[in-house]
Amino acid sequence: MNIRVKTLTKYDEKTADRIRELLIQLSRSHKDRGEIPKQWFDDLIASPSHDLLIAVDDDGEIYGIATLSIIMGPIVRKVAYLEDFVVDESARGHGLGGILWTAMLSWAKGKSCTELCFTSGHGREPAQKFYLNKGAEIYDTNYFRKTI
Predict the structure, then answer these.
(1) Residue 95 CB contacts under 8 Å (≥ 6 apart), including other chains
(2) Using the 8-state DSSP alphabet, how is residue 91 labeled?
(3) Is residue 139 part of a domain?
(4) Of 9, 38, 84, 117, which one has the fewest beta carbons inside 10 Å?
């Protein structure tokens, strides 16, 4: 399988549906949270600080995604933040995660980021092993979320 990684640059329903399918696989409960609003795609595509990388084969079939954002602060300076990273269950174990990982690092370097930051929750041991094998370090912190 020949895979290349590209940045999502335009919205279409087929792509949106496929991304939704992949996000369902990423969800711990495999719960479908519903359609991703077109406005989300439009905002992402228009933003210079956010991108959705997609791993596609020669036929345009999407096998993986990574959502990246730039975060800036006086302490962290400028870092890339990985929000969503998933490879289709049917394609895992064939190096696609590594291809996407390399593309994420390239994206971050191209945006002058000094680090790639992300979280990986309990029960995600295969993902955590992948990250450690790629040279990532576990940073001891608590992650909080407040709905507003």
Answers:
(1) none
(2) G
(3) no
(4) 9
Residue 51 buriedness (CB in 10 A; 0-12 / 13-18 / 19+)? buried
Sign of the CA dihedral with 131 first, then 67, 49, and 57 last? positive
Tell whether 144 is covered by a domain.
no
In tens, the pLDDT along 62-75 reads 999 999 999 999 98
Cα 56 to Cα 43: distance, rounded to the nearest angstrom: 22
Alpha helices in 27-95 (DSSP H): 38-46
Q: Output the pTM of the full model.
A: 0.91
In a domain, 148, yes or no: no
d(CA 62, CA 15): 8
Q: How many domains does the chain have?
A: 1
Neighbour count for residue 48 (Cβ, 10 Å): 7
